Amino acid sequence: MKHFVDTLHISGIREFSEMYINKEDCIFLTIGEPDFNTPTEIKDALKLALDENHTHYPPICGNHELRQRIAKLESMSFFESYTENNVIITNGATEALILAMGVLLGHGDNVMIPTPCFPLYQTQALLTGAEVSNYDTSTHGFQLRYHEFSKHIKENTKVIVLASPNNPTGIVYDEESMITLHRLMEEHPDLYVIIDEVYRSMIYEGEYPSIRDYESTIDRVILVQSFSKTFAMTGWRVGYAVAQESLIKQMNAFHQNLVTGVATFIQEAAITALDVDTQFMLDEYDHRRKYLLKRLALMDVDYIRPEGAFYIFIDIRKYGMDSYTFCKQLADELGVVIIPGIFFGTEGFARISYGANMDSLENGLDRLDQFIREFCL
């Protein structure tokens, strides 16, 4: 593993943001984190768990009640009848992803990752010894189309990793994309899909097609989910994976060797979280989304219309700068920090997060408008 660890580096997203952490009067529309605080009910549940001394080792795979609740939740929207044996509690979705890749991938395997994407997918896959292939979706409306995508699936492709809604675009992979995935899985009996659904609760328009809608291939789907975005619990580091029981057993063995388990009292609070209504957060994100879409249209800035998550991927190709240059100059000149699209594997775009509050968004868009008028036209 040392060979691969030596090649790792800090995420370009965080590295770029930290360049400006000490710059005065900066507006950060960068990291994908809710600006809401964790709801009081969840914090109170944590305090009660501590007072009741839930501070001992947890079951390695996770709290039984929490796993049962998640199994029931994840069975509601799909035909599959999950049980707690299909669920493992992890240290955030990040650990769930590495566990999934770790039990599926090895030397000689190929993992296909549609881009733009969350950059850790690629580095985590490399840690398994697998080779990584990227597929640029920007030429097909940021969707998967069989006639093109199928050409990039190799004989040794073992896993496809994707997120819906997507980070950084906010698009939801449509029905045709799911048909494409399912068709490929039927054509390649050893092909698995890892679907990252951490933004699934944040959908503002349209339907949510899922690869889990197909019974014939459900055993080769691993769902990755997190409490971070839905419940404003990013710092709590709690997520989960749902998969066939044999895969969960393998992931549990890997999990035990990595972290032993997730803090007992945090899991107790996570049970309470599942009953908390967070619609007010979703309504506020949608309000911000609509504001940004209106402002960007008035500024004649092209963008990919987001259907979910809390990101807008703006198209900067007409300004004659690569994404790193555009974002660095914007931050240097006017103190607005957004993320270059190249960090997500797609040049010519930049990501704006509307996890920030309205004051920051309004001020940031005013400065972006000024920047485009003074430096790009």
TrEMBL record:
<dbReference type="InterPro" id="IPR015424">
    <property type="entry name" value="PyrdxlP-dep_Trfase"/>
</dbReference>
<keyword id="KW-0808">Transferase</keyword>
<dbReference type="GO" id="GO:0030170">
    <property type="term" value="F:pyridoxal phosphate binding"/>
</dbReference>
<dbReference type="InterPro" id="IPR004838">
    <property type="entry name" value="NHTrfase_class1_PyrdxlP-BS"/>
</dbReference>
<protein>
    <recommendedName>
        <fullName>Aminotransferase</fullName>
        <ecNumber>2.6.1.-</ecNumber>
    </recommendedName>
</protein>
<dbReference type="GO" id="GO:0006520">
    <property type="term" value="P:amino acid metabolic process"/>
</dbReference>
<dbReference type="InterPro" id="IPR015421">
    <property type="entry name" value="PyrdxlP-dep_Trfase_major"/>
</dbReference>
<feature type="domain" description="Aminotransferase class I/classII large">
    <location>
        <begin position="25"/>
        <end position="363"/>
    </location>
</feature>
<dbReference type="GO" id="GO:0008483">
    <property type="term" value="F:transaminase activity"/>
</dbReference>
<comment type="similarity">
    <text>Belongs to the class-I pyridoxal-phosphate-dependent aminotransferase family.</text>
</comment>
<dbReference type="Pfam" id="PF00155">
    <property type="entry name" value="Aminotran_1_2"/>
</dbReference>
<dbReference type="InterPro" id="IPR004839">
    <property type="entry name" value="Aminotransferase_I/II_large"/>
</dbReference>
<keyword id="KW-0663">Pyridoxal phosphate</keyword>
<dbReference type="InterPro" id="IPR050596">
    <property type="entry name" value="AspAT/PAT-like"/>
</dbReference>
<dbReference type="InterPro" id="IPR015422">
    <property type="entry name" value="PyrdxlP-dep_Trfase_small"/>
</dbReference>
<keyword id="KW-0032">Aminotransferase</keyword>
